[in-house]
Amino acid sequence: MRLIPCALFCLVIAGCATQPSLTIPDTGLITYQAIASDFRIDREWWKAYGDKNLDRIVELAIANNTDLKKSAITVNKALYEANLLGQELVPEFSGSGGASTTTNTKAGETTHNYTAELGVSYELDLWRKLSSAASAQEWEYKATQEDLETVRLALINNVVDSYFHLVYLNQAIHVTEQNIRFYTQLLQIINNKYTTGKVDALEPLTAEKSLLSSQNSLMTLETTRKTIEQTLRNLLNLKPEDKLDIPLENILSVPLTNVDLDIPVAALGLRPDVKAAEYRIQSAFLDWESVKASVYPGISIGSTLSVSSDKSSTLFNVPFLAGAVQINLPFLQWNKLKWNIKISEADFENAKLDLTSAVNTALNEVDTYYYSYRKSLSLLDNVNRKYDTDSKISTYNQMRYEAGADELKDWLDAKCSENQSLLILLESKYNTINYENAIYKALGARLTNHSEGNRPQ
Question: What is the annotated signal peptide range for this record (predicted)?
């Protein structure tokens, strides 16, 4: 009967224990709730380009990417570990049974014996050691969910970037191939004129120089395209023989999504890596609390119900009930526990620093991408106007050359400037699209003010 008062005393002590709490330091970021209230949230920002082929490739990447699948497995593993630790908070049952036969060879008698035992044990969580450990793992599970979202965001951004990079490269290669055909035909014409003595030896050399320059550019562009194709295949988990099916499009006709630059840099409540860092502070704190609680005595109570009989029919006629209380004194190993506490405290301090680092990294990313996007818009406008000017100059020099007023070199120089301006224009448009998507990845979604519609391009 002494077991009952002892157990009641333990329960009273357990009731006095309180759940440790932690307040996450204010990061100065705009929270998810405030963002959802003040802005429109578009988590599928790539669909704003209206490109069905791009939508298909993004969906394929989400379905096939191995890094995303491994991250999902990590989330499931964290859930299993949280469930496993949660089992420490419920009673543990055990049971056994047996039968034996003993034969006395001298007396010729056979004795049968049947036994069965059912037990239950439970560790009293007096100091919330077990509940803190279980809660710590639950926070880690939440953090791995945010890790999965981080991988997903990076995957989508890389796929969109690679897709438009290939669109740009395909068009740049197409333009360069047209230039090569032009210079090849022009070189044939100049060679014929040189053969008949109508031009001097400098003009064929000048035309050949322009042709070789375009051929070199083509090889560089093709090598770059192969590298980007490799990147996209890896993201989609495709083999070399699998088709990517990137159509030849005019990247200049791709509509810009018009990033809302009025969105504050601190609107980072959607950033999954920041949320993961916050969750890991909670996890590290609770783990620290659990380790500190492991210093205090641990009390386990248990009970067994056992029966025994020489006949199976009367096995449960006379059951025996026994109870036990086990007290562990872990503080006797203080030297070991002390260092475990220090290690957990260090993990907690590291988690706080990780949050600070994640916040600063996020703020700097958005600030830099905003700056780069503004510059890319200005550069795109300037390059576009320069291309228009170079195109007019090239046409003017062609007319003067055909009229005999200018040398071939003047026309080819103007034509080369026009071609180069077009290639730079294509690249500038791609860079602007790239910065758009980098901003959406950095913010965690495409954010726009409720009061604003889609602004004209």
Answer: 1-17
DSSP result, 342-407: HHHHHHHHHHHHHHHHHHHHHHHHHHHHHHHHHHHHHHHHHHHHHHHHHHHHHHHHHHHHHTTSS-
Residues 6 or more apart in contact with residue 183 via CB below 8 angstroms: 207, 210, 211, 214
For residue 106, tell me if it sits in a domain: no
| Measured distance CA(423)–CA(432) in Å, rounded | 14
Helix, strand, or coil (residue 425):
helix
Structural domain includes residue 96: no
Q: What is the C-alpha to C-alpha distance for residues 41 and 209, in angstroms, rounded to an integer?
A: 53
Total domains in the chain come to: 1
57 lies in some domain: yes
Reduced 3-state DSSP string for 134-149: HHHHHHHHHHHHHHHH
Residue type, 426: L
Residue 103 lies in a domain: no
pLDDT (tens digit, 9 = 90+) per residue, 299-352?
A: 666 667 565 555 544 444 445 555 566 677 666 677 777 888 888 888 888 888
pLDDT tens for 391-419 read: 999 999 889 888 888 777 788 888 888 98
3-state secondary structure of 438: helix
Distance CA 444, CA 226 (A): 30
**Model pLDDT for residues 198-241, shown as the tens digit of each residue:** 888 888 898 899 899 999 999 999 999 999 999 999 999 899 88
